[in-house]
Amino acid sequence: MEAFNQHLSAQPFAARxxxxxxxxxxxxxxxxxxxxxxxxxxxxxxxxxxxxxxGTHNIITVNGQFPGPTLHVRNGDKLKVKVHNQAQYNATVxxxxxxxxxxxxxxxxxxxxxxxxxxxxxxxxxxxxxxQEGTLWWHAHSSWLRATVYxxxxxxxxxxxxxxxxxxxxxxxxxxxxxxWWNRNPMDVVNQATRTxxxxxxxxxxxxxxxPGDLYKCSSTSDTFSVSMKxxxxxxxxxxxxxxxSDLFFSIASHTxxxxxxxxxxTKPFQTNVVMLGPGQTTDILVxxxxxxxxxxxxxxxxxxxxxxxxxFDNTTTTxxxxxxxxxQLNKSAPIMPNLPFYNDTNTATSFANGLRSLAxxxxxxxxPQSVQENLFYTIGLGLIKCPGQSCGGPNGSRFAASMNNISxxxxxxxxxxxxxxxxxxxxxxxxxxxxxxxxFDYTAQNISRGLWSPVKATRVKVLKxxxxxxxxxxxxxxxxxxxxxxxxxxxxFYILGAGFGNYNPQTDPHNFNLVDPPMRNTVNVPVNGWAAxxxxxxxxGAWVMHCHLDxxxxxxxxxxxxxxxxxxxxxxxxxxxxxxxxx
Length: 584
Known about the structure:
It is built from 6 helices and 33 strands. By secondary structure, the chain is mostly beta strands. The N terminus is likely disordered.
């Protein structure tokens, strides 16, 4: 193993890239015919009555389920999902974290890769899972529909392989979906905020697998999600933060968790009492029932990590129950509560992020670009826009906004960006998203000039050459309120080379980059009033949105799009659009 790693590290980037590709293609060709399978599903989006928190509410569901169905596939399998929109809203489905090699038409974000599926219409998503194992998920990507339209996507290893954590074999695998619940229709919540310019109301509860837990009114223990385990067994919990607007701490009373993967990328195992997940992130953890007393019950609990000073948040706690089997009976004693961090415990959130390292083994190698062709610096944060001739609901009669490099992203309406790119349509977007802020400033200062608070609303993209190596410095700002931002990039995984607080220093901070075993993710939590550095190779042609996964922020414009050009031949180029692609 050591010799193999030294052999790779001694070669230049391009040579190592080709070698890794050849290894992957060889493994794929010898096993694909044996293990690959086509999975077909039907998703019916429709309004469904659901009772939560003392009332019955009509919510949008998939196949009448909340959360939606869990899909199980293997690395190398194909998925074909036909979505029938029987709801009253436009809709799309995004396959969060799936690389979508050459199948950008199936990525799902509204007006980025497709026009929405109108009520009464349908669209079929088709794609292959290529070189990915672990926990991903799917969710609506149209307005705030994903508040209730989401589910787990479990990618198992190929039939002839197994998990790399050979020190234990889990007895069971259990999806744990952390969500957010409003007593009002979430679409009404965001539409009111958009109309007035004010911040939307925070949620009324958090949920675990669709249930708030027995700490809320009208939520009994019988309505609380539970997991039973036998003493001594180990289970794999696949934890997904599907909440709309909240980073979340997650913990299990009296049990240590062993993290083995994040965002469908294996990590070096490390033990922790607390996991922190930004919206969109997933974490695979092993939990062993190693407490001496059988028949006991323990809370699994989640609450918000809220880093922004003065920013309203849902200060409630959701629970599920881990219970030990005692013979043939389950003990009904009061569950033990874990010690969750305080809502503003940035040290715990940072400690967890710093503990993540890629596995970096022969079967799961690390391949960090050692040189950079596109060196980009993007500021991310909030802002305010004036409301001429009227008073809006934001501070001092203004309207809330958010931006990257002071560009507040505006979705097109006449075409998706991918359609405009593919067919050469003019006037849908402009290819002039700035590589750097137009006016550098002290990004994390306590008192930033009000002249920098108002972003420009536009639909701008950054064009990347095929196979370009890209580094993006994501710099948080303290305009209005600094806070942690979970930044998600569609169509790619990326390496997180480093992160820190304050302003990024291009002279000193790169010396501390991890180029050996950095974690690979599709969503990075940029620290409050801090920065994060990511790298990836632009080897997937298409239009790929990068946005904050706090839906309130993407609603305000905290997003941009990378348009990646086709490769040198048809096999390295975007496939033709499907015949049933929705029309605008």
